[in-house]
Amino acid sequence: MPLTREQIAQRIAQEVEDGFVVNLGIGIPTLVANYIPSNKFVMFQSENGLLGMGPYPLEKDVDPDLINAGKQTVTAAKGASFFSSADSFAMIRGGHVDLTVLGAMEVDEEGNIANWMVPGKMVKGMGGAMDLVAGARRVIVAMQHADKTGASKLRKKCTLPLTGRKCITKIVSDYGVIEVTPQGFVLKEYAPDLSPEKVLDATEGKMTIAPDVKPMRLA
């Protein structure tokens, strides 16, 4: 069985280092915060102007004026700071975000990402993803390996409008952990209930299996 959304987030949390400033995109990425160990100090940044996002509030603690970039109600951690959206994007564009975790509709073997629109469908806006893929020091993609029809989302070449070019170096999908190299996708870890060969068969883009490939560890 492929990984659940929660297991994808749990694996990505292992990539977060003590002292990091982290921006989490909408969807699976928001779950990463639930799996950061208590002994790590991590500041979560939201591009609408908050550094130090806390956990989602209990119903009795909801403040409708305190939201993240996805318009979800959040809390502020001790020591949090509030600032304008302009300052927030200056932080991102200035390289002060250590890691961003984004969802994606497609990633291709060159590390291009498409995650902001599908032609012909209504689009609210591009959001902050284009700034994040260009300004964050590291970008990890959290995504489903295949779409609803079973077609691979790890493609030879993205077919949707791009968010960024050659900016993705690591993907954590429900099938495994994949690095993007100049030679294409490299499978480093696979979901425990799958095999490297099954991941290979489910991938459209060029993929090789790392010599030291291993089952993904979630604990």
CATH fold field value: Glutaconate Coenzyme A-transferase
Q: List how many beta strands DSSP finds.
A: 13
Write down the secondary-structure element order: HEEEEHEEEHEEEEEHE
Radius of gyration: 17 Å
Mean pLDDT across the residues is 94
Biggest β-sheet strands, sense, barrel: 10 strands, mixed
Strand order, biggest sheet?
4-3-2-1-5-8-10-11-12-13
The CATH level-2 architecture is identified as 3-Layer(aba) Sandwich
Distance between the termini: 18 Å
Helical stretch count?
A: 4
The residue ranges in which pLDDT falls below 50 over 5 or more consecutive positions are: none
CATH homologous group name: Glutaconate Coenzyme A-transferase
Strand percentage: 25-35%
Percent of residues in helices: 10-25%
**Total number of domains:** 1
Q: What's the overall geometry?
A: globular
Helices and strands: which structural class?
alpha/beta
CATH class: Alpha Beta
